[in-house]
Amino acid sequence: xxxxxxxISLFFISFSILIFIMSIELGIGSFKLPGPGFLGFxxxxxxxxxxxxxxxxxxxxxxxxxxxxxTRKNLTNPxxxxxxxxxxxxxxxILGFLISATLLMWAILLINTPKRWFRQLVVALIIVxxxxxxxxxxxxxxxxxxIFRLQW
Amino acid sequence: xxxxxxxxxxxxxxxxxxNAMAADxxxxxxxxxxxxxxxxxxxxxxxxMVAEHSKxxxxxDVVCLNKPGGAGRVAATLMSKGKPNxxxxxxxxxxxxxxxxHLEDVTYTLDDFTFLCQYGILNFAVSVLPNSPxxxxxxxxxxxxxxxxxxxxxxxxxxxxDHIAWQALSNYENLKIKFVPFKGAATTMTGLLGGHVMAxxxxxxxxxxxxxxGTIRLLATYSKERLEEHPNTPTFKELGYPYMLxxxxxxxxxxxxxxxxxxxxxxxxxxxAIKTPEFTKFAQDLEVYSENPLFGEDxxxxxxxxxxxxxxxxxKLGLMK
Amino acid sequence: MxxxxxxxxxxxxxxxxxxxxxxxxxxxxxxLVGVLPGLGPVGTMAILLPITFYAPPVxxxxxxxxxxxxxxxxxxxxxILVNIPGEPASIVTCxxxxxxxxxxxxxxxxxxSAFGSFFAGTVGIIGMMFITKPxxxxxxxxxxxxxxxxxxxxxxILVYLTQRxxxxxxxxxxxxxxxxxxxxxMMSGEIRxxxxxxxxxxxxxxxxxxxxxxxxxxxxxxxxIPGLRSLYxxxxxxxxxSLKDWKDSALPIIRGTVLGFFLGVLPGxxxxxxSFVSYAVEKRVSKHPEKFGKGAIEGxxxxxxxxxxxxxxxxxxxxxLGIPGNVxxxxxxxxxxxxxxxxxxxxxxxxPDLFWGVIMSMYIxxxxxxxxxxxxxxxxxxxxxxxxxxxxxxxxxxxxIGVYNVNHMISDIxxxxxxxxxxxxxxxxxYEPAPLVLAYILGPMMEHAMVQSLIISGGSxxxxxxRPISLVCLMVATFLLITAFTGYxxxxxxxxxxxxxE
Lengths: 152, 321, 502
Fold this sequence. Notes:
The complex is a heterotrimer of chains A (152), B (321) and C (502).
Chain A: H1 3-26, H2 38-61, H3 76-112, H4 117-138
Chain B: H1 2-25, E1 31-35, H2 42-58, E2 62-66, H3 73-80, E3 88-93, H4 95-98, H5 100-103, E4 113-128, H6 137-146, E5 152-155, H7 161-173, E6 178-181, H8 185-193, E7 199-203, H9 204-213, E8 217-221, E9 247-255, H10 260-275, H11 277-285, H12 296-317
Parallel strand pairs in B: 1-2, 1-3, 5-6, 5-7
Antiparallel strand pairs in B: 3-9, 4-7, 4-8, 4-9
Chain C: H1 2-15, H2 17-35, H3 41-52, H4 57-82, H5 91-102, H6 106-140, H7 144-156, H8 166-180, E1 183-184, E2 191-192, H9 206-223, H10 243-265, H11 270-285, H12 298-313, H13 315-321, H14 327-338, H15 347-350, H16 352-383, H17 388-407, H18 410-428, H19 433-457, H20 462-466, H21 468-501
Antiparallel strand pairs in C: 1-2
Helix pairs in contact in C: 1-16, 2-4, 2-16, 3-4, 3-14, 4-5, 4-6, 4-12, 4-14, 4-16, 5-6, 5-12, 6-10, 6-12, 6-13, 6-16, 7-19, 7-21, 8-19, 9-17, 9-18, 9-19, 10-11, 10-12, 11-12, 17-18
């Protein structure tokens, strides 16, 4: 999986090319009167150069012993976390903050300690409601209440 | 068959009765006003004041939240897709309604909204330092004619309403001016005070406090008649440039399809709120006071008119998207 | 004589019971808001503003001001404890402060931070008392060319923020700069790099980026370690800074105060820039720069002092000239207008009780804050004892609420998640987030200044060299750049030599 480190450089390279093209579309102007795309143009060139350098340096090192920081084993939890966060954000407008946040908290608690499901749920409820009290009641933060309009 | 028909009639009557009651009972829960600008500005403070003073009449809480973005465009776009139940409203300037559709690719039209009330106005003016060699606007314009491309004028962002007005002026009078854009009225005023630009054109949020303290001098205002607060400052119209007319409005609106009883109730409450002495005093302090605010259909007609006027000007200037 | 009368008047005003009460409420709310990441003082001030309509003017302004500098005290708490910046000015504190917490030294970090803030705040207030007018006038002489050079200098500083690969740090900086270009451009009126998404009209947003890279990213990284009990490798070694800590922090605090004091006066300059600059300065003058990023207390003391000094002096343009220098002072500006008080040079003449009352109450507020914060250190340190499995969801929740509160848009939460995942991957591969954030903050300011300057000068670059302040900043920037690279090469050469020796 030494490909992963190269992927990042490749991401930057493609990102810089994208920005380069969009900057030209916007109009670069001149040094005397920079257009909207001027700095994007310059910066994308720098980024392209630097990430290409990193790419080639990494490729040279590819022959040496390489310990991949990301292994399949320990990616499970982060991936589960990402999925929970996605789910939360998708549900937030529908179910409202109180329900979605409780589910999210419960999910994260369970990812770290997959046992004692019911107790974790209670902990999740406590966390969410304490936060709701401080932030929404005291500091008057406004959070989505969803289609059920659940608030207190 | 007959029984079914009877049952249907009864159901229909009850249902419409319930609907009517629901409209009568509006509002039954808090109303949310989305402010399309950041906290602390005129749009925000005005909306919050309206909210505060309409609570009594409406009988429910009116909460405000900020959704800045694209100078009100994001909030307007979201509102155009909103539910017309009367509990979700938006407050912005009329920029997203009368200017932006001509300059940018927006996804809404004026028919997507139910306009409720106008809660304030925003005037614009040109300011210079007290010791500036320009004693009148004509001095400034003479200077530009004699020294084309020399005058630096600060503007609050490119293609804002007053910048476009000056572009029109430069076009008609054949003037070459260096417009220096700044971010926000405060930094624009700082540019003037520090002497980095020779003159600036801003809204009242920029010039009002400084005129009061005497740190700047107004050359001209973009209003129909001389402003009450600044009786010694001539209008562009007086000075011979009648097309330099500008005034932003702060408006409250909801999505299209709101029911008449709901609309009437809201307009009634907002009307009362704006007429309270507290709101009046607040508006006068911030120089956003509007003597004859428009509501409902009148407001919509005026906005359509303004939008069409703008379209003409933009077309002439070649700014239409 | 008048001066001492004024100070007396100020003290009298600030010690009036209602003003004391409002001051206390303000600093309390401010601390709370500062501690919660993402929730800035601005939001709370906006909500309280209409309510202040019913309160006496002096008390209202005192309270609003208290919220601001209270937030400055509280902002470093989460930076140190959980590596999440409370607001942009506290980002730099994350670098060394969090490392100290992980080494069990959260107490000393918090203590030095509080004390540095107190010292800087007090000095700032004294400065305000004596040289408000002259300082404000100097601040006005900073025009677009000066800002450009200053921001350029600030950007050069980002090479000092890295411990490892210079190339990667610069790449991060450039990436951050490009990100800052997204959205509607003030200078040209064009909408840039928005990919047709309305949500990006005002740019990506510093809050989703900072919370994502630092807060959420942190959780992602730590989730990877199965069965992680605690983020903190060693247990707490003591609550108070040691004698050595005090000695080490003394000069940094003074330097930070001076830097923050002057940088804060510049409208648009601000606490964030001050904190980055003072960190870089400390690293540059330190005898052991390699310790930075691993828990050097100088890296906490100086930025914290400078951001407090900067937030205090940011009041100067407002009180002296009626110019709000940042969003918070703009709020105060609005607050004054609501009470029919015109901020500006006449403020001192027409409302001396307000002017001096606010200044004196800042002393009182600072004292209240240090009294509040020092015992709280004991409480905050307990957070390090909370097991990770409990801390993680709480952090995520607080980040989500914080980021949502800015624009009330779900898209911001998506952005934060994206940057969280990006932060995870970045840190695995030794790309550091700090340069990205710094470039993101300074980029737009530099671009605006550049365009403004070129319009004023008609396209000539001479304007940057002809004006003295601008020239000085450019020279400093060049100097810093060159020494950064020579220092780097020296380090690399030393590394290569040691390898050869083996």
